[in-house]
Structure to design on (495 residues):
């Protein structure tokens, strides 16, 4: 393997160790990443705005700090991508919206500032759906992001650009966020780790309805340990977020390996309500059979989430009404179809709808926590289908049955959002079409450390089982541009 190939394939944890021990220079690592982006990104369109000149200055400063024996942060010298929903000072931040084509923030968001303070060298933004609406990372500003296993297929969203950037070893660190599955879904279908933490651990200042816990910011990584390293840099208590609370951030930096043989594990194909393709059901059952010997027990359970679709509709829509009312009333055509649909659903709702939804979310939360009296983890699929073409904005039907709306196909992840439990998408081999399969692993309420430790142990065990091991894209097939990914910029589809 050529030197640069070996360097870029190393985990973020290993790269940070090598920087600290002076085995590699942050400057050397950055230049390798820039070369990889130039070579691979035209095939997948995951990296959007870049700031290479500033990054080179930051990398040189990081190198100097190492040579001077200064105290180094968790992410010191690591080239980093920031999801294009986070304001990044001095770097174009579009939110995937035509309204922000030329928006360059003056300062970093609170989360980006923490990542930078931990020593990260911010290199670029990563692609998203418009305002993060949906699980297909395409917009009229940058175009679509393709899956590295097949660039004509969906990369997921809304953290699709970050997931693909990681999967292609273009950058070792990338941030994400999650409302209905936006960390977990792209993690799952690109063969990387996406962790949705408990609300309040990573402060979110851009959440308008601050007391509503459905939207969180969190880490992605090629391994659980990489995700933990980034997560520890993100965790903090900030007065911008009323859900924020004091916690020892460094306690998340290194996952504690748990004894899988002591864990009682439950599993469900669909939480009793979610649409799941029959072939994915079989793939999931086969995965469970291949791993059940690892645990103390592994039992199928019945769960009661029967009102979760309506509940999520209301709570999600309320957030869109709060955030996009002014833009919609000024000119609804400045918003894409997904954002408009969310706003219009919410605008028709009443105070009685809102009260019911919050009551129901509380009932969902309480019922689900009862499961953890008997079990340590709950396993489920992360996505209900194999990736479909990115040119298809969303999934409209499954197994011949129409779905409720553009995000109904995300039910496997948004039911967990409602419960507020931490959840992680863990690479788990491939599906029936040879595409990455992501196992959704759910921990107990605020059991983030325990969940990460269990996921780390599962990852290690999966590495020894071919059917469960993390798949890797063939980067040799990604050296030619995929011009179709950019076509959406000048020719938006008629929806």
């Amino acid at each position: 393997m050529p030197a640069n190939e070996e360097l870029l394939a190393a985990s973020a944890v290993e790269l940070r160790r090598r920087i600290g021990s002076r085995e590699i220079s942050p400057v050397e690592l950055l230049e390798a990443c820039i070369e990889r982006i130039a070579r691979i990104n035209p095939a997948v369109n995951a990296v959007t705005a870049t700031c290479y000149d500033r990054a080179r200055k930051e990398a040189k400063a990081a190198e100097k700090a190492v040579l001077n024996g200064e105290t180094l942060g968790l992410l010191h010298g690591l080239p980093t991508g920031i999801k294009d929903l986070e304001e990044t000072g001095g770097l174009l931040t579009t939110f995937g919206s035509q309204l922000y084509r030329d928006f360059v923030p003056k300062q970093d968001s609170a989360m980006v500032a923490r990542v930078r303070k931990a020593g990260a060298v911010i290199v670029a933004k990563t692609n998203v759906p418009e305002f993060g609406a949906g699980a297909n990372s395409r917009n009229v500003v940058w175009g679509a992001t393709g899956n590295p296993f097949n660039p004509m297929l969906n990369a997921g969203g809304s953290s699709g650009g970050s997931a693909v950037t990681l999967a292609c070893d273009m950058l070792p660190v990338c941030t994400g966020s999650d409302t209905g599955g936006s960390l977990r879904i792209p993690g799952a279908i690109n063969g990387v780790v996406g962790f949705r933490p408990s609300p309040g651990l990573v402060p979110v200042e851009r959440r308008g309805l601050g007391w509503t816990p459905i939207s969180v910011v969190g880490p992605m990584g090629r391994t659980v340990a990489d995700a933990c390293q980034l997560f520890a840099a993100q965790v903090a208590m900030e007065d911008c977020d009323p859900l924020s609370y004091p916690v020892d951030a460094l306690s998340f930096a290194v996952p504690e390996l748990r004894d899988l043989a002591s864990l009682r594990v439950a599993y469900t194909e669909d939480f009793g309500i979610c649409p799941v393709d029959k072939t994915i059901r079989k793939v999931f059952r086969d995965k469970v059979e291949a791993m059940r010997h690892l645990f103390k027990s592994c039992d199928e359970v019945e769960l009661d989430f029967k009102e979760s679709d309506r509940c999520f509709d209301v709570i999600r829509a309320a957030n869109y009404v709060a955030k996009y009312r002014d833009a919609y009333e000024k000119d609804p055509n400045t918003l894409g179809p997904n954002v408009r649909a969310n706003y219009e659903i919410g605008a028709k709702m009443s105070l009685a709808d809102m009260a019911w939804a919050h009551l129901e979310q509380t009932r969902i939360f309480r019922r689900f926590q009862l499961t953890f009296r008997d079990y340590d983890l709950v396993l489920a699929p992360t996505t209900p289908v194999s990736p479909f073409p990115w040119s298809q904005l969303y999934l409209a039907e499954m197994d011949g049955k129409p779905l409720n709306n553009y995000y109904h196909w995300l039910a496997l992840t948004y039911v967990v959002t409602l419960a507020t439990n931490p959840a992680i998408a863990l690479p788990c081999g491939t599906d029936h079409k040879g595409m990455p399969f992501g196992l959704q692993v759910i921990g107990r309420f605020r059991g983030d450390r325990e969940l990460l430790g269990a996921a780390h142990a599962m990852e290690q065990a999966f590495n020894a089982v071919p059917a469960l091991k993390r798949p890797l894209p063939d980067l040799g097939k990604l050296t030619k541009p995929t011009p179709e990914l950019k076509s959406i910029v000048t020719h938006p589809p008629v929806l």
In short: The two ends are 46 Å apart (CA to CA).
